């Protein structure tokens, strides 16, 4: 599974403060901590408190790139912020994210093409959050069609079914899992799937267990990637073990160590 | 029709065997194996930088169980291993020698570590091609002999073996100290092959210095099983599993000439060895340790036909 570490986000107090004080060392430590435990890529989000996110995302990326060459997921709802990041990203970036709304797709898909970036497409639109699998697939098909018309390779597209908190939308969990499986039949080559995992346990009291149980189940439905907290060791162990069960990695007694050494 | 091409993210690691004068050794050539970025001979899909290499198997004592047909080409030199090795190079154009230190075995000659080390020194003076050194198969004795032999060949960047899951530390330490590559042997078991590579690299020996001996069976004796293990390991390597990304060494001669069909009739053994080798080349073998010069000649031609040389 492709793991994107979620911890460089201005929403977290320590990161918010580091962005404000331009404390490069704190950002770099957070980046390396995540890479060390097996993150394949790092999400970068200036957070709501940033006064100048167009500048801040560039500063974040340049700081991170001094210590790791892992790809970065540029996380913002503002295309100007994303483009500012794309201009300085060295490894192949991931745009996080577009919705299924035409006005978003028309800006972000060409940006992905221009900068040879991957793109995360949320199956959500201005009409609201989808309520079942079919609505998710409909939005997913609209995103795929747009990317396909624009000439963006579909294997560079990650569809996100929008994970809801289990304590808010319990009936949606199975719909989300089914959607992950059916994203694959929208086109050939198939788009990839991704989830923002932590949302599933938002507001619940046993968050780590809910996170790793959902991740494991999503893996069984064919999930390709997840944005999550890689410092949660049991969660990462569950992700690596899921890959093993799905026959994506060859077993050996030290398979957990082997993954972290990759 | 358009070819459907696979995009691989991984590659087999490149292992260099033998060190030239500039690199601190005395070898006349350096053999490079591995480096593939695609499955065997799908060159439209990715790079295949080096051809498979054949090493002539030479023992330090006259073998007792080799059939007549196999002994015939070496008849005059079989009791003199230095001349045997030299004959392989000068008469048959061997590009590398795989020396088996069988005389160290308690049941064969029980030679001491010092005697074997002296022999290695003499051999290195006699021939200048890169050297592969393998033990006699008795773990306790190999742990005494191989480190001393590694030291005798210090700086020559040999390939030494075999490290196994329950006996690898001594040999890895020796290879580290004296700058050699190592053969990691697993009993036709991909899980153990991966585990052993982790154990060896944990000791600090880089993955670019490990060659996997997956253990093979000859034609009619489990060849398909070996083939599928190698294929699976190679697919994992190309998909990015670094712990599976080592080149393969296959002891083709040893396994082929054990087959009773190979011993029965004069020419059949040669064919048995050649056919086993061709299948393993298709499975991704990087180094083939072979015995009969006629089988080797056929395989060199076959490799030429694959690589266009």
Key phrases:
heterodimer; A: 262 residues; alpha/beta; TIM Barrel; 8-stranded parallel barrel; 10 helices; B: alpha/beta; 8-stranded parallel β-sheet; two-stranded antiparallel sheet; 11 helices; globular
Kindly name the structural category of chain A: alpha/beta
Order of helices and strands of chain A: EHHEHEHEHEHEHEHEHH
Distance between the termini of chain A: 13 Å
Q: Supply the number of structural domains of chain B.
A: 1
Strand arrangement within the widest β-sheet of chain A reads: 1-2-3-4-5-6-7-8
Return Rg of chain B in Å: 18 Å
Helicity level of chain A, as a percent range?
A: 40-55%
Greatest interface: A-B, 11 and 16 residues
Number of helices of chain B: 11
CATH topology of chain A: TIM Barrel
Mean of residue pLDDT values of chain B: 95
Tell me the total number of β-strands of chain A. 8
- The stretches of 5 or more residues of chain A where confidence is low (pLDDT under 50) are none
Shape of chain B: globular
The largest β sheet of chain B comes out as: 8 strands, parallel
Stated plainly, the CATH topology of chain B is called TIM Barrel
| Main sheet strand line-up of chain B | 8-7-6-5-4-3-10-9
Determine the mean pLDDT of chain A. 96
CATH class category label of chain A: Alpha Beta
CATH superfamily of chain B: Dihydropteroate synthase-like
């Amino acid at each position: 599974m492709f793991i994107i570490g979620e911890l460089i986000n201005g929403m977290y107090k320590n990161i918010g403060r580091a962005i404000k004080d331009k404390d490069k060392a704190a950002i770099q430590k957070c980046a390396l901590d995540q890479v060390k435990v097996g993150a394949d890529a790092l999400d970068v989000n200036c957070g709501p408190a940033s006064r100048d996110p167009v500048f801040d995302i560039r500063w974040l990326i340049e700081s991170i790139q001094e210590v790791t060459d892992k790809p970065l997921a540029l996380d913002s709802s503002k295309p100007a912020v994303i483009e500012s990041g794309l201009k300085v990203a060295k490894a192949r970036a991931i745009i996080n994210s577009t919705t299924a709304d035409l006005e978003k797709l028309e800006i972000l898909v060409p940006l992905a093409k221009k900068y040879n970036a991957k793109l995360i497409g949320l199956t959500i639109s201005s009409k609201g959050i989808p309520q079942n699998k079919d609505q998710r697939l409909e939005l997913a098909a609209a995103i795929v069609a747009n990317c396909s018309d624009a000439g963006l390779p579909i294997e560079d597209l990650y569809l996100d079914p929008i994970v809801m908190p289990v304590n808010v939308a319990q009936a949606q969990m199975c719909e989300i899992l089914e959607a992950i499986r059916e994203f694959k039949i929208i086109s050939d080559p198939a788009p990839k799937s991704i989830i923002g995992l932590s949302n599933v346990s938002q507001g619940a009291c046993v968050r780590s267990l809910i996170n790793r149980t959902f991740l494991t189940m999503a893996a069984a439905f064919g999930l390709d990637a997840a944005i999550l907290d890689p410092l949660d060791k049991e969660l990462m162990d569950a992700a690596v073990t899921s890959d093993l069960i799905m026959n994506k990695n060859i077993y050996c007694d030290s398979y957990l160590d082997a993954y972290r050494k990759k | 029709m358009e070819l459907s091409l696979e995009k691989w993210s991984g590659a087999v690691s490149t292992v260099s065997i033998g060190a030239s004068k500039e690199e601190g050794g005395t070898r006349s050539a350096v053999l490079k194996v591995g480096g593939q970025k695609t499955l065997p001979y799908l060159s439209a899909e990715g790079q295949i930088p080096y051809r498979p290499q054949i090493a002539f198997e030479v023992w330090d004592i006259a073998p007792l169980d080799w059939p007549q047909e196999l002994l015939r080409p070496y008849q005059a030199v079989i009791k003199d291993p230095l001349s045997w090795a030299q004959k392989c190079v000068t008469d048959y154009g061997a590009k590398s020698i795989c020396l088996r230190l069988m005389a160290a075995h308690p049941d064969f000659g029980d030679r001491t570590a010092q005697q074997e080390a002296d022999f290695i020194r003499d051999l290195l003076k006699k021939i200048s091609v890169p050297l592969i050194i393998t033990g006699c198969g008795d773990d306790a004795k190999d742990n005494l002999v191989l480190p001393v032999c590694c030291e005798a060949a210090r700086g020559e960047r040999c390939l030494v073996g075999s490290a196994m899951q329950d006996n690898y530390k001594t040999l890895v330490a020796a290879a580290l100290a004296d700058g050699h590559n190592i053969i990691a042997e697993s009993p036709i078991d991909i899980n153990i092959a991966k585990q052993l590579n982790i154990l060896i690299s944990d000791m600090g020996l880089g993955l670019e210095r490990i060659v996997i001996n997956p253990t093979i069976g000859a034609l009619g004796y489990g060849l398909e099983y070996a083939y599928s293990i190698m294929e699976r390991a190679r697919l994992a390597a190309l998909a990015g599993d670094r712990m599976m990304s080592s080149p393969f060494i296959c002891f083709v001669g040893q396994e082929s000439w054990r087959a009773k069909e190979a011993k029965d009739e004069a020419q059949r053994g040669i064919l048995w060895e050649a056919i086993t080798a061709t299948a393993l080349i298709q499975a991704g073998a990087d180094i083939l340790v072979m015995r009969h010069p006629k089988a080797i000649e056929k395989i060199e031609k076959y490799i030429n036909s694959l690589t266009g040389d």
